[in-house]
Predict the 3D structure of the following.
Amino acid sequence: MNIDACLEELNPKLIHWRRTFHAFPETGWTEYVTTYRIYEQLQALGLTVYTGTDVVETSARMGVPSDQELYASEKRASEAGVPEEFLNKVAGGHTGVVAVLKTGKPGPHIACRFDIDALPIEESDTYDHVPAEKEFASSLPGSMHACAHDGHTAIGLGVATWLAKNRDELTGTYTLLFQPAEEGSRGAKAMVEKGWLDDVDVFLGGHIGIEDLTVGQVAATTEQFLATTKFDVHFKGTAAHAGKRPEQGKNALLAAAACAQHLHAIAPHSQGATRLNIGTLHAGTGRNIVPDQATLTGETRGETNELNDYVFQEAERIIHGSASLYGVEAEMKVVGKGTSAVCDPEFTRMLEQASIRTAAITEVLPVLSLGASEDVTHMMNRIQARGGKSTYMIFGTPLPAGHHHPRFDYDEGVLKTGAAAFILLILECNQRGKQR
């Protein structure tokens, strides 16, 4: 099988898919148009495709948007051409797609995961930002693919296309998970709880970028997955006239502001890296009113689950202490959670051996540090707990701006590299399965 010939044939499609998804970025649990477009492509390949409540466990979803936001997103999807019958199946934030290919021949069960959601970021429109220059920048104000999930989705469709074309030469079963709501660590657990990873032998995941590398470099494994907890806090006080009766008010804004300051003073831990960030704070309704409502959103992270728990427990203490200090109430809600994980090291040797079959991979790095959180860890841990093997790769590309930045972009040559890495590891695992 000529891998490079396959990749050259796929490459125009990879770029087209990437740009299509980039131009219509949808945030977690609202990826209705994205889900439909993925579904259409997979159906055309003759794979068995699942959507809606067949894909995610409703009660295991985290950080689902309000009914009003979901309704607005569904209306937008309808206006964009998503059929009503399909929308009914995925309504209420049941986005994401799973595709399954069964060869009917004994062999390993291999699962691959590709995240599909965007971020609430206003994309740059400057002339030196390639998506703006080439006219595929976000068409949705306030939303942007600023973390390469558009590319991950394109790679996933490329892998699906290759699997469908070569099904007669393969053995075993292949499950492709197009996961919603990765941002905020909200979506993977809902797929895990649905049982999609329960009988998988090999799990493959990956990410474009992370570090400023060159196209062709691939890290076969990743370390330093930070465990994380995402939380919302609502402070409820008492409104009052700020001039005539200020003593009758209980100031929720001041409680929230003090809380934010004190949270960033949590002591680091001697046993490893910890993080905390407050991302938003909204409060008050007018300059002459003692504000009775305030909401902040934040996150904790830790190099291990125990370190993350330390930061989160300290955050809880400070949140309720700040509320008490100003005589207001504080309601805290966890809206996302990710764990730590460890890749299986044998994938380094496997990818090194397989990479000689393509020019798309120029160097295999044994390991690269993520230094951030990824809810793919729920999937990796479930598979390893049941005796399977997991890895999470990183695909190198120059980065003109960092992840989660309005000018984030990457070299589209990385799409071919990413597809090559998945395909080669699938072939390597397939061959090892035959040898057993």
